[in-house]
Amino acid sequence: MIRPIASLGRGTLDALSALGRAAMFLAQSVLGIPSREGWHLWLRQMHFIGVMSLAIVLVSGLFIGMVLGLQGYTILVDFGAEDALGQMVALSLLRELAPVVAALLFAGRAGSALTAEIGLMKATEQLTSMEMIGVDPLRRIVAPRLWAGFISMPLLTVGFSVVGIWGGYLVGVQWLGVFDGSYWSNMQSSVAFVDDILNGMLKSVVFGLVVTWIAVFQGYDLIPTSEGISRATTRTVVYSSLAVLGLDFVLTALMFGELG
Amino acid sequence: MKRSKMMEFGVGLFVLAGILGMVFLGLRVSGISLGVPQDTFTLQANFANIGGLKSGSRVAMAGVTIGRVSDVELDTEWLDARVTMELDEDLEGKISRDSTASILTSGLLGEQYVGLSVGGDPEMLEEGDTIRDTQQALVLEQLIQQFVSNMTSE
Asked: Chain A window 60-99: which residues touch B at a Cβ cutoff of 8 Å?
C-alpha cells in the first residue's frame, strides 16, 4: 500500500528536482556569455550547429514546399482557386511548418550530437577536471552551445521558409501552370510581416531555446556510463520533439487563435 | 588559423543568408514596401452592410488600386458601417462629389474590396469628406433568399 504511493512521491520529487536543476543550469549558463575569449568558442559551435545543419534543413524545406505546391494545387484546382496557391504555401510554411519541422530536424541533427558530446565529456571526466583547474564548464562548454543553438534556429527557419516557398513556386508555377503573378500577389496580399513572419520567427526562437536547452542539459545531467549516454541521447530527441509540438500548439493558440 | 578563418567565413555566410532570407520574406512574400509612407487623403463612406471588408482591404477605381481601407467601425448614430479609406494624395480634389462607392468581390471566392466609380458633379471631394452614394456588399444568402421568395410568389 505504501510502496506505490512512495514511488509516486519519489517520481514527482525527481521530476521536480530535475526541472529545478535544468532551470538553474539555464540561468547560470546564459548569464555566462559576454566574454571576449568566448567568441571563438561560440563561432565553432555556430559552425557545427548552424552551418552544418543548413543542408538537411534546406533540402527538407525544398521538398516540403514542393509537396505543398502539389497537394495544394490538386485541392484548390477543384474550386478553381489555384491562384490562391501562393497564399496557402506561404502561410502554412511561415506559420507552422518552417518553425516546427526545422526544430524537429534540428533536434535530430544537432541536439543529439550536443547531448552525446557533452555526455562523453562528463563520462571521461573532462568537465570535472575543467572545474579543478578553475574553468567554469558552464561558461566554457555549455554557454557557447546554448547561444549558438538559440541564434541558429531562427536563421535555419528563415532558410526553410524561403526554400519552401521557392519549391512551391517551382511545382505550382513552373510545372503545373499557376499564373506567376497571382502566385506572388496573392501571397503578398495575405501574408502580414508582423503577424505571420515575425510570429513564425518568434516561434523558432522559442523552439531553438527549448531544443538546445534540453539537449545540453541532458548531456550535462546524464549518468556517466555508455548506457547513460545512449539513453540521454534518446531522451533529447524524444523530449525536444514533444516539447516543440506541444509548445507549438500553445504558441499558435496565443498568436493566431482567438485566445490571445 | 586557416581553419578558423574558413569557419568564420562559413558562419558569416550563414548569418548573411539568414538576413537576406528575412529581407526576401519581408519584401517578396509579405510585400511591405521600404519607401516612406505615401501621403494620403482620407474619405469616408457609410455602408448598410460591408460583408467581409476589413481594414487593409484595397480600394480600387476602374480596377486599379488607389488606396486601402484604414478603419471599419459601427456608426452608432445610423447603426451602419462606417468605412474610412486612405487614397493616393494625387487624387485629392479629383473625385467628384456624386461618386459611388460599392463593395465588390474579386472573383467568385475572392477578397472584398471597395470600388469607386466617378460621377459627373463639378464639385470635388476633399480630405475627410463622406461619399453619400454607396452600395452595400452582395451577401449571397440574401440573394438566394430573394430569389427563392420571388420564385414562390410567382
From this structure: 79-81, 83, 90, 94
Does A37 touch chain B if contact means CB atoms closer than 8 Å?
A: no
In which band, very low, low, confident or very high, does the pLDDT at A260 lie, cut at 50, 70 and 90?
Answer: very low
pLDDT digits (tens, 9 = 90+) for A130-151: 889 988 888 888 888 888 888 8
Question: Exposed e or buried b for every residue in B106-143, given b needs 16+ CB within 10 A?
Answer: eeeeebbbbbbeeeeeeeebeeeeebeebbbbeeeeee
CB A123 within 8 Å of CB A229: yes
The string of DSSP letters for A192-259 reads: -IIIIIIHHHHHHHHHHHHHHHHHHHHHHHS-SSHHHHHHHHHHHHHHHHHHHHHHHHHHHHHHTSS-
Give the pTM.
0.74
Cβ atoms of A95 and A196 within 8 Å: the answer is yes
Q: Per the structure block, which three cell numbers stand in for A166? A: 521557392
